[in-house]
Amino acid sequence: MTNVKFPTDFLWGVSSSAFQIEGASTEDGKGLSTVDTRKVKEGIADTAIASDHYHHWKEDISLLAEMGVKTYRFSISWTRIFPSGEGEVNQKGLQFYDNLIDELLAYNIEPLVTMYHFDLPQNLVDKYQGWLSRETIDCYEKYAEVLFTHYGDRVKNWISINEELMVMYSQDFNGIRNLDEKQYKKAVFQMMYHMSLAEKKAFKLCHELVTDGKIGPANAFQNIYPATSDPLDVEAAMNAEEFLSYMLLDLSVKGKFPENTLRYLQKENLAPETLPEDEEILKNNKPDYICFNYYASLCAEVYTGLADDHMPPFFRSNMYRIVPNQTKSLSEWMVFGIDPVGMRISMRKLYNRYELPLMITENGYADSEELSDTFEINDEKRIGYLQLHLLECSKAIDEGIPLLGYSAWSFLDSLSGREGFSKRYGLVYVNRTDDDTKDLKRYKKKSFYWYQNAIKQNEFIVDEGKKNYDNK
Ligand code: BG6
């Protein structure tokens, strides 16, 4: 048995994102974004109602207060503030987040605000081709200015963009559907470069407008091990990590590409177009911390031309081949290998490379769940997952990593990528399914009570040998 302790100022939290919980996708003047217009699979819930947080926000915040979290990470929907992504501000949209923020502060919960979590205004795609054009950078900058000016007196912790890696590859998020395969392959890196420029502008504005504020990116960190000790697999893993994580983070922190990656992009004719004046904005504006989302580790092996089209697009490459981590347990929804130690390894890699404070902004266990007859959810596996990952947080802090906090994904059951409500991560159950919105009532899962107690004690006891989510 290990007693796992945390510093007194550790930021215990939970996370959510606007389009995954709010619903009300066209209410009170909200405009459509790419996640509203994307095609969802037949039988899977869309953003119209989601977890109906827009109408349950007061009750939801009282649940957060009951849970005892010190911080709550949520995202602001760009199209509630600017329905077209540009132009006139929607006062009702501003008001919604005013209410939310004030209520959080009344409970002493520190807001941690993601400015943009996958939901790009559809109008910016229709009018400018979204992140393919520099106009979208200007629109994001204007949006950032409104957020900092309006909420900066109360919100001190900001996240510029959630998971650029997903946005640049996913047409559901970036909205770019009119290019052929070759053009799209190149467009991915142009979108990435423009997002990196946009977030640098947000860092600059945040530091100017919220003088006691802090800001950083939220990276989908891919911790990749070589599949074997064959040096070619080792090199493949290095390539994959550079390509999937360090390329974006080096741009965020150092304002430049890793040399190896840049040369690869140039060789493959994929390098983005840049302007000389970008240099100054990229070099001079640094984040205050790095937020990262971590669910699992991966392995890479040398690329031999074997097909990898069963993998999500961002894992397909001719530099490496991504494979699941077979030494770790896999489950129905956790398909790459659950690896708590890998989260500490990730922190070490990130801190060694960037020497910035870290925040874990997503980490959680996905499962298919149904309410019992007594309205309970006995999510022991989720508790096991959280315990073992938090244990690694505590060890990382002991090893000298400045880890500011941990926000579990997710607060409520919410719309999951392509799987809607058939896959759930919440500590709070939302009573609906994909095809039946039922009464949308909230039920605290067993993990809610476990987390509440851990936060209250600022410590918990774990049996390291007992991994109750698996058998490895
Ligand atoms: C992260 C996203 O990529 O992973 C979240 O920031 C997402 O928005 C989470 O919900 C889990 O992914 P999925 O597809 O299982 O919901």
Produce the secondary structure layout:
Elements: E1 2-5, E2 11-15, H1 18-21, H2 34-37, H3 53-67, E3 71-75, H4 78-81, H5 91-106, E4 110-114, H6 122-128, H7 134-151, E5 157-162, H8 164-169, H9 171-174, H10 181-209, E6 214-220, E7 223-226, H11 231-253, H12 259-267, H13 278-284, E8 290-293, E9 297-301, E10 321-324, H14 340-354, E11 358-362, H15 380-398, E12 403-409, E13 428-430, E14 442-444, H16 446-457, E15 459-462
Parallel strand pairs: 2-3, 2-12, 3-4, 4-5, 5-6, 6-8, 7-9, 8-11, 11-12
Antiparallel strand pairs: 1-15, 9-10, 13-14
Helix pairs in contact: 3-5, 7-10, 10-13, 14-15
Primary descriptors:
472 residues; TIM Barrel; 8-stranded parallel barrel; 3-stranded mixed sheet; 16 helices; binds 6-O-phosphono-beta-D-glucopyranose
- What name does CATH use for the topology? TIM Barrel
Strand order of the largest sheet: 2-3-4-5-6-8-11-12
- Structure summary, number of beta strands: 15
Given helix and strand content, the structural type is: alpha/beta
State the fourth-level CATH superfamily.
Glycosidases
Can you list the ligands bound to this structure?
Answer: 6-O-phosphono-beta-D-glucopyranose
Give the helix level as a range of percent.
40-55%
Estimate the global geometry from the Cα principal axes.
Answer: globular
Radius of gyration: 21 Å
Average the pLDDT over all residues and give the rounded result. Answer: 95
Number of helices: 16
Family: Belongs to the glycosyl hydrolase 1 family.
Keywords: Glycosidase, Hydrolase, Plasmid
InterPro entries: GH, GH_1_N_CS, Glyco_hydro_1
GO molecular function: beta-glucosidase activity
